[in-house]
């Protein structure tokens, strides 16, 4: 664990102790703000235009070959929407669209202070990460996905702030 993560982790422990008895737990203390909701779409241009027509700030389409997707980010006042479109036949988004022809919500992303501490904590709670090691996500920050079977049927991405 990096020294920065140790410092952040220990400060979270202090916060946990201070808020004990206030419906707090290490897991709820770990979670930050909602970063984005990701939507898989069979037509990323049409989906992008939909949000532009509503007056939203919509990014250009960016290839993310290491993740097998194209992304477009729709910036909202308090969060973002991530539009996902397959990049290549082996894209995990292609598999999702094969099952959900019209597209739909793919995952939610929640910020955490330290991805390493978050991974340790979720594992200790019996929540399975989809990978043993974090990856670098579309924002250039460390991310890890959590198994939907352990998260009420929702694919959750944790992203370091």
Automatic annotation (TrEMBL):
What positions does the domain VOC occupy?
Answer: 33-161
E.C. number, please?
5.1.99.1
- Which Pfam families does the record cross-reference, listed alphabetically? Glyoxalase_4
Q: Which reaction does it catalyse?
A: (R)-methylmalonyl-CoA = (S)-methylmalonyl-CoA
On the tree of life, the source organism's domain of life is: Eukaryota
GO terms (molecular function) for this protein are: metal ion binding; methylmalonyl-CoA epimerase activity
Q: What class of enzyme is it?
A: isomerase
Q: Which family does it belong to?
A: Belongs to the methylmalonyl-CoA epimerase family.
By what name is this protein known? Methylmalonyl-CoA epimerase, mitochondrial
Organism the protein comes from: Pristionchus fissidentatus
Taxonomically, what lineage is the organism? Eukaryota, Metazoa, Ecdysozoa, Nematoda, Chromadorea
């Amino acid at each position: 664990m990096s020294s920065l993560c140790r410092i952040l982790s220990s400060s979270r422990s202090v916060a946990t102790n201070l808020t004990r008895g206030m419906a707090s737990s290490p897991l709820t203390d770990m979670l930050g703000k909602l970063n984005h909701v990701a939507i898989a779409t069979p037509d990323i241009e049409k989906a992008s235009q939909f949000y532009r027509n509503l007056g939203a700030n919509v990014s250009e389409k960016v290839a993310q070959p290491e993740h097998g997707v194209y992304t477009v980010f729709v910036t909202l006042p308090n969060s973002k929407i991530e539009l996902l479109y397959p990049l290549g036949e082996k894209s995990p988004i292609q598999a999702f669209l094969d099952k959900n022809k019209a597209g739909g919500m793919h995952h939610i992303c929640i910020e955490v202070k330290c991805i390493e501490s978050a991974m340790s904590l979720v594992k200790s709670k019996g929540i399975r990460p989809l990978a043993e090691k974090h990856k670098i996500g579309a924002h250039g920050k460390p991310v890890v996905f959590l198994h939907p079977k352990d998260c009420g049927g929702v694919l959750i991405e944790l992203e370091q702030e």
